[in-house]
Amino acid sequence: MNNTLKGAIWMCISALGMALMGATVKFIGSDISTFEKLFFRNLIGVFLLLYSIRGKNINIWGSSPHSRLFMVYRCVAGLTGAVLYFYCINKLYLADSSLLNKLSPFFVTIFATIFLKEKLEKHQIPILIVVLFGALLVIKPKFSFEMLPALAGFMSAVFAGGAYTLVRYLRTMEEPTTLVLWFSAFSTIGMIPPMLIKGFVVPNNTQLLYLVLTGIFATIGQIALAYAYKYALASQVSIYQYLSIIFSAIIGFIFWKEIPDLLSLIGGCIILGAAFFNYKVSKKI
Predict the structure, then answer these.
(1) Considering the domain boundaries, does residue 85 fall inside one?
(2) 59 three-state secondary structure
């Protein structure tokens, strides 16, 4: 099995894991705050990761002060994006929230060009403009607080794009497991103050089950994503990340009878079409 195929398989696993995580977050409901959901999600992740690496020769403390500094940057960007995404999930249809969050690969392209000095191909510039137009159809800008959840979903993609760009920068310095463990531990600690300020709610048995599943699915998605970028170039495998939108749409329809409105469907088709076109052109370059 070549590395490109390995990367594609890992990205598909990541897409499924993230879609299932979004579903479990929605199942928990709004009684439990976003901060508490993220606390449990990442606490579960820390335990799962520590268990998975026991007996293995993996340096969890980072290989150098330089890489540790950039892992902190990655954690801050990733946690900000996660808070915005969890808020968005509870306010929008699951497919819409997933669609907005999955704009992140396009921001990876922008950030990688600016900060990693990667070449921006000519065909990518009009694609980025088309994607922005598709996102506007989903967000439906208006001078009202009603657009805040959609705007949060859009900004979650911006911060996630920054975090994934840093993952790409760190991919030759640190093991994928180390990157995910740092993010989970940082997020667990970082969510304690706002969780306590907001008010800790003791979950019932059903909510506790979904909180645990959220942590499991999120950890699977994060590890699979890190391995996908480890084995293959983003241009080769990023298209498979969009399977999460399809998975989310199916889950949303089955459990909540969610059907996105016409503008969201058109915007989604534009974004998916642009992603597929970018993937096909990138393969030929």
Answers:
(1) yes
(2) coil
Q: How would DSSP label each residue in 177-215? A: HHHHHHHHHHHHHHTHHHHHHH------HHHHHHHHHHH
Please say whether the beta carbons of 183 and 74 come within 8 A: yes
CA distance 167 to 81: 14
Residue with tokens 């929230």: 97
| Closest by CA position to 167, among listed 80, 83, 107, 226 | 226
Kindly report the pTM of this predicted structure. 0.89
Alpha carbon distance 104, 238 (integer Å): 10
Q: From CA 187, how far away is CA 182, in angstroms rounded?
A: 8
Which residue has tokens 């800008």? 141
What percent of the chain is modeled with pLDDT above 90? Answer: 61
Q: Read off the tokens for 45.
A: 């992740």
Q: Is 40 part of any domain? A: yes
Task: Look up the domain containing 25 and give its range.
Answer: 3-123+141-258
Q: Which of 71, 15, 26 is nearest to 184 (CA)?
A: 71
Q: What is the pLDDT of residues 100-128, one digit of tens each?
A: 998 988 898 889 889 988 887 787 889 88
**Structural tokens at position 261:** 């409105």
Tally of structural domains, the chain: 1
Identify whether 129 is part of a domain: no
Strand locations in the chain (E): none
Number of CB atoms found within 10 A of residue 284's CB: 6
> Per the domain annotation, does 29 fall within a domain?
yes
Phi, psi of 253 (to 5 degrees): -70, -40
What is the token pair recorded at 152? 């949060």
